[in-house]
């Protein structure tokens, strides 16, 4: 069987896994770009299903716990909406309605018989990035070679979600290798941005981004090694958390570059609200994942940290705003999002200072060199099993021009160590740099968190998400980072500026490509960047930022 | 200048740094092997100095805090004793009396003027393994190439010790490269075991081991990547803690194989008592080292964990005893130490079960492969600066036969990742293996801690510490591990056994080499092995084991 035949067979199986009655007879035409309101208006969802899928996660969990809504009802509603989202954006990989509804029914039975919930996520459907193994289901991760390999065990996180009462119900699309900031592979094809289908949903957790933006799931789990949770969260207008390494169990997933122990991929939550991120993190950490995954750090969830006890109780925070990393100047909508955030924080009584970038270019370079040390061989070893080419571009041409990897041949272990040593030193320098801000904040503390762009642009056209430095450097530093949606590209507010003095060709290229019409309707977000393993405090500070932004927006309609 | 000339010049400087009045006119002859009581009887120390250097750390700190003893007095006493120890075992590298006494005087002044202590380690002299940088002092780490390189900055830990009120006062000997379980290099030569100078002090923190065993320091800081704290602690009869990675700040030290991010070296305390280990760990962690070293995990010191709240309050613990790793059977004194520990724990009302080794050979192999990936180039790059050969044996011939490293050329980064992936999987399997013991302990918990040999022998003759698996596998697993001295080799109690069925040539060789006379007077210890980042609980459990052993010993004089 050729790899193309394997793909064709897999696609047929995927199609057959979709219940006929949930497919839409008439879909918006391809040139209908913004399909974000379509699920609400398409008529497939009942009024209750619309209410369910529009609910915030706290409300959902409370109604599930009280039995006001059954898990079968809630799971069905989200499943139907997920299938609608899939037909609009091509966001799903594995669809297993029967298995999910069986688990949902178990939840309902348990509640009925005992009057108790199974756990803090009782009855809640949860979507999973394709790489997260569910027993008996494929995790192709966009590799044709892995079609037909059915997981023998649940990933540790899936077992935990199970114990917490959650209902894993779909898996979502990724780029082949996961090492792209967009979502395209030879098996499932491309995931589009629901706000403008000519734009990318981002990646590598791009299936999650599109699905969640269309409210086809209340909570999704992505992974992030260089921005893979935050880029799609930003591009699709949702919330996403990249925890530090060692907080959320990763064992039992498939992955790229396994054994690369230096800049590690992490799992984290994506949702339509901050409370979605918090309830996942608290539930998982409270369940002591360090007894289930050898790489998880034994560190209990701290409500004290969440209440910002080490940040002056959150009363007078000092944020540093990174306007520009001195490599690529962000486009106007991104600068506007930062300005909105600044204004909102000042209005809420907090302090805001400028955050000067510190060796961001060097930080960025080390990540390329560390991953480049062996990635080419890693990808080829898997791809060659099926004969599928390693994809060399996320552009519309797909893999028609494989070309040669610039990382071909890799480097020696000793050379890798030299780069990793540089990385370690940069992390140390960055810590000292951050600590030194204590002298200037006036709060008695160093800057509490950094507000940073997620990318120097809003979601770009397919194939053009080429600058991932604004997310990637925080992975190198292993800082906790959370994305908050702020606005959408607006051609009146985000007019093109006069050229600045360009840092580089990349910077000029980014300037040249900007045109508000290209990015029409694309969401715009910021990242809240905290310290390593500071998940509780970053969520706490993000709530302050989000509340401040919402307060400003409600006063200034033009920003919406 | 040849490397030999550089050595000669450095040795002259070392000699000149020793105050004349602290040198001994008459030293025991070379065939006087056990010199452990010599410092007490040599006449150089005054009665008060003897009292000071024989004190337990809690008593010392309390007298220093109250001003009963000044820091100058205490530092002088330990310095004199350290110089005696050095003349007997060759344990020191850097000697800086003036600098240390100046800091001690500062402590005294502060206390006098304010009535307060500088910190929890107020006035306490602390010895440091050679690799720990002190501004203005060399850290040759046994490399001739690094003679004449004076540290520009303190290591983070030295700054912290300074703030905590401690007085760094000597640096201690190591093997060239640090990657040996003995202590010999071309600059300072060999450190001997104070209990029997024909035996090794162990390594790589062997200078610390010999110094502390002779009470030439109340607290020493060593490092451990494969046993380098635990081997000398065991061989010299002291207590030593290998914390998990990320608990004690390492930034700013020199090291081997920097950038090797997979199985990392850690710093940890060595002392004559468990309270020495605890007071160091608590003082350092309470000072929030994660704001000073980017690799330290933000995890507060937990008295609750120390009180064993997660281990049933320490009332009925279940220990697993590893009698044999199925690779090399320990010699009779080691088995006796395990038997003594078992008996003591049973007498104290705890449970003891056998701990079956799980893939210890595979764990051991991964560490060799990971370090072997680039170590040869790492060593050569440094050694070739001076032209000094890379030492190829710790035996009496030293580096007379350099030979060729079996790791020559190293491996590719991609191949390294494959081994690191195996390591990760083994860690996960070991966690699951350990968790599964919950079914059989009868306590409702998995085994609380493992009691393991530190090596399959007591301190062997120089050049024969060749089996480091019993310590190294716990580094691969990143488990918290603590060494407790138990007994000494006794030719009546530790008679050679009849041959067993050998696992391998290594096993046979270990059997063949055993003869109680060879190991005369060598200390014997056990390791308490807990989970990753479980420092508090491991210290808490070690206190229970230590107390139980002391109770048994006081009843059974023959064991002493």
Automatic annotation (TrEMBL), chains A, B:
Enzymatic class: hydrolase
Positions of the catalytic residues: 129 (charge relay system), 204 (charge relay system), 228 (acyl-ester intermediate)
Gene3D superfamilies xref list: Amidase signature (AS) domain
EC number: 3.5.1.4
Classification via SUPFAM superfamilies: Amidase signature (AS) enzymes
Catalysed reaction, written as an equation: a monocarboxylic acid amide + H2O = a monocarboxylate + NH4(+)
Molecular function via GO: amidase activity
Domain of life assignment: Eukaryota
Protein keywords: Hydrolase
Annotated residues for binding of substrate: 178, 204, 225-228
InterPro entries: Amidase_CS, Amidase_dom, AS_sf
Start and end residues of each Amidase domain: 74-538
Entry similarity comment: Belongs to the amidase family.
Stated name of the protein: amidase
Organism: Guyanagaster necrorhizus
Lineage: Eukaryota, Fungi, Dikarya, Basidiomycota, Agaricomycotina
């Amino acid at each position: 069987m050729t790899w193309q035949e394997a793909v064709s067979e897999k696609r047929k199986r995927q199609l057959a896994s979709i219940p006929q009655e949930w497919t839409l007879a008439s879909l918006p035409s391809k040139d209908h770009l913004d399909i974000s309101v379509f699920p609400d208006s398409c008529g497939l969802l009942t009024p209750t299903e619309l209410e369910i899928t529009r609910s915030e996660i706290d409300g959902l969990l409370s109604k599930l716990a009280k039995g006001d809504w059954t898990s079968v009802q809630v799971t069905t509603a989200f499943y139907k909406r997920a299938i609608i989202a899939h037909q609009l954006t091509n966001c799903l990989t594995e669809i297993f309605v029967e298995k999910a509804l069986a688990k949902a029914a178990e939840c309902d039975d348990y509640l009925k018989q005992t009057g108790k919930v199974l756990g803090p996520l009782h009855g809640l459907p949860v979507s999973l990035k394709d790489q997260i193994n569910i027993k008996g289901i494929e995790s192709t991760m966009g590799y044709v070679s892995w079609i037909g390999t059915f997981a023998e065990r649940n990933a540790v996180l899936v077992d935990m979600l199970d114990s917490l009462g959650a209902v894993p119900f779909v898996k979502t699309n990724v780029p082949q290798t996961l090492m792209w900031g967009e979502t395209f592979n030879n098996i499932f094809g491309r995931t589009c941005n629901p706000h403008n289908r000519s734009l990318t949903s981002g990646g590598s957790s791009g299936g999650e981004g599109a699905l969640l933006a269309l409210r086809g799931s209340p909570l999704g789990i992505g992974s992030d090694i260089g921005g893979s949770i935050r880029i799609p969260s930003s591009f699709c207008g949702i919330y996403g958390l990249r925890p530090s390494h060692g907080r959320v169990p990763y064992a039992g997933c498939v992955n790229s570059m396994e054994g690369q122990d230096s800049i590690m991929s992490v799992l984290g939550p994506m949702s339509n609200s901050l409370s979605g991120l918090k309830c996942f993190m608290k539930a998982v950490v409270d369940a002591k994942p360090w007894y289930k995954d050898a790489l998880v750090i034994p560190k209990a969830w701290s409500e004290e940290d969440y209440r910002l006890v080490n940040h002056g109780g959150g009363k007078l925070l000092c944020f540093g705003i990174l306007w520009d990393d001195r490599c690529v100047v962000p486009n106007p909508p991104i600068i506007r999002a930062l300005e909105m955030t600044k204004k909102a924080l000042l209005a809420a009584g907090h302090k805001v200072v400028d955050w000067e970038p510190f060796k961001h270019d060097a930080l960025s370079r080390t990540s390329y060199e560390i991953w480049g040390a062996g990635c080419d061989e890693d990808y080829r070893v898997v791809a060659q099993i099926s004969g599928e080419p390693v994809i060399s571009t996320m552009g519309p041409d797909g893999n028609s021009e494989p070309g040669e990897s610039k990382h071909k041949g890799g480097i020696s272990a000793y050379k890798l160590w030299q780069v990793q040593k540089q990385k370690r030193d940069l992390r140390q320098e960055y810590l000292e740099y951050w600590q030194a801000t204590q002298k200037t904040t006036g709060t008695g503390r160093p800057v509490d968190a950094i507000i940073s762009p997620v990318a120097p642009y809003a979601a770009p056209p397919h194939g053009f998400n080429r600058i991932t430095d604004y997310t990637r450097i925080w992975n190198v530093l292993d800082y906790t980072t959370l994305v908050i949606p702020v606005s959408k590209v607006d051609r009146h507010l985000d007019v093109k500026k006069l050229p600045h003095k360009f840092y580089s060709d990349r910077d000029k290229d980014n300037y040249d490509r900007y045109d508000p019409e290209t990015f029409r309707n694309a969401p715009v977000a910021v990242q809240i960047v905290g310290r390593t393993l500071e998940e509780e405090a970053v969520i706490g500070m993000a709530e302050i930022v989000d509340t401040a932004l919402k307060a400003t927006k409600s006063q200034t309609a033009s920003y919406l």
